[in-house]
């Protein structure tokens, strides 16, 4: 139940809780910039120029009126059942239709009535947390030369951030066993106007600067994984850690050292039988590694390329396979420069939650309670894999070691399906470790300079 007088969020797992003062909302009435920017949204499609006398710098408050408006019109149009313009398809629940898979769960019309299957599916779909663009929050400032540009909305650039928040929310739903419709406590963690909210777009923008991203910049799926990873380090969730595997191989020594909280080098030190430089580890060290007990759950993120540009047909079945692994928490993917939270598929099309709808940010706990419906989506659509972007990031949640070992078994038993895209190895090869010196190879910073042979 929700107690409006409580001062902390009580999301508990065993003995720990996350503490957030949930009365500490950004004061909308006293904050000039915010008040101005919400006025802009309602009334004025023009940018406003101000002067910050404290910082002695001009500020341009970006009016997102037009981009919010056009985004929402586009979103509403795409809700229309026949949508050839946007390439979306409806999920088919008619007799004889193919099964729908959502987060490794199968919805199939076989012995049941189509409406029953569709009802079960839509109930489950609505339990997922849907995060969209929001407007009407304290502007995020971007310094451009002698100017500050202030964004009080993320319409047009924040879609991957929103998809990342959805993936994180799904992970926390599993982690806290709160997979119910009431998700108020989790939603507090991402509130734009709640100053203590650890995973709000403001917090993401703050870690984004370390990743070379300013407010107004679009995030790639892999940058967003790094942002999630940094956020979970800065604002830890009890008994949860995260790890990104950029080489698409999950190295158990790295994973286990985080999950088990051990220094792997100390743990396996001074073995005369191992030849690390040759990638050889003795049986005893392997056993030792595999005996590490986990005391944390893990969110593992794996950025991947499934072809160049759009997803290559060769990988369609592999992508379906990834969404069928029980530990999946979905995929950050989408269309070029337009991120979608991919949660399943039917035939060769992907099921997703779409962040491209601009909604007003909540201004208080009561406002959040009133707007809880805006965090659940009742429209389920499909995008053909042929029009989906090949750059994606997989997310998997391992509650414990057993859960990871099940994943490892599935991976090792289905090499053909996986086509070598991801894998699990016990030890990190020397060339992947930090002390390894990169040979002098000419590299290019610009993607455009790559020549594809
Ligand atoms: Zn050894």
Automatic annotation (TrEMBL):
Keywords, ordered alphabetically: Autophagy, Cytoplasm, Hydrolase, Protease, Protein transport, Thiol protease, Transport
* Any one GO CC term of the record: cytoplasm
Q: Which residues form the Peptidase C54 catalytic domain?
A: 120-407
So what EC number does this one have? Answer: 3.4.22.-
Please list the coiled coil stretches: none
| Reactions mediated catalytically | [protein]-C-terminal L-amino acid-glycyl-phosphatidylethanolamide + H2O = [protein]-C-terminal L-amino acid-glycine + a 1,2-diacyl-sn-glycero-3-phosphoethanolamine
Give the SUPFAM superfamilies listed for this entry: Cysteine proteinases
Homology family: Belongs to the peptidase C54 family.
* Protein name, UniProt field: Cysteine protease
